[in-house]
Design brief:
mainly alpha; two-stranded antiparallel ribbon; 13 helices; about 0% strand; elongated
Amino acid sequence: MSVSEGNRLLHEVQEQRLAGTIEQAIPGSERYKDKALVWLRKNVPFDEDQAILKRLEREENTALRPQGQQKGGEVYAESVLDRIRKKNLSKSLEKEQTNDVKSRLEHKGFPLSREQALVRRREESLASVQKWRANAKRDDLHSVPRMSFIQRVGPATLLAFTVISLCVMFAQNYSPPSEAARLFTSITPAAATVGVLVGINFIVWFGWRVLPLRRFMQRRFLLIPAYPWSSSMIGGLFSHQSFQHLAANMIALWFIGRNPAVHEDIGRGPFLAIFLSCGIGASNVFLISTVLRKRWEYITLGCSGALSGILATWCWINAE
């Protein structure tokens, strides 16, 4: 017996239990009816004896009920409207009982047909997507919070100053690894440095495509002057929401960064220090200017400021 046939048999047997007609035969399914009845009695408890008594009572009342009854010296028979109302009420009760049985069967783990399983998976998938979309919406930006200029700009500026200072120290104290200590000896140090930066940018870009991460990405990889998170200046340096923006910046970084006149002349330490310092410095300047103008609708992300610093370094080296 297929899943759909088994499901149909269970529903028919349950309807007989509810109606008190469990002794009636089901054509073509007698050999499976007892198994279905055992499964239903175990997983969907119901007072079958009470249902049978109610059925017998209904049949007895129907057989003994007169065509009319004496009331106030006159004969009143059941009207057509009364019969229609009772019929509709009975259908409504049967429908509620059927829906309740279906839900209890599914709750008990009864195997669904292939079509029902596809519909169930689709509904669960849509519910999950709607859940993550609702969770991704920032509920702290319904209105611009009241904050002073120092409260908005101070923490981010302090973070920028700290990072730039660390970058200067890193550039002054960095010593390149020996040839034996390098992981990829077949490529130049410039290509390895730029390749890692490009890889980080692609990983962050992919993070924007993962819906459960959307709320985290909005907080840590997108600088919003209306409600600034200081750490978003660092994350936003490697963040691109559109592929066109990502491709344009990465192509420019690849061709400019791999130029021996930049990376090999100044070294990996200064190269990374310039990249990070210029990127964070540009984000901080954007934040200050936006807050001063109170343009709360503006946001920023991307490594355009960092690329501008690398390009300016190349122009400085090749000024002659």
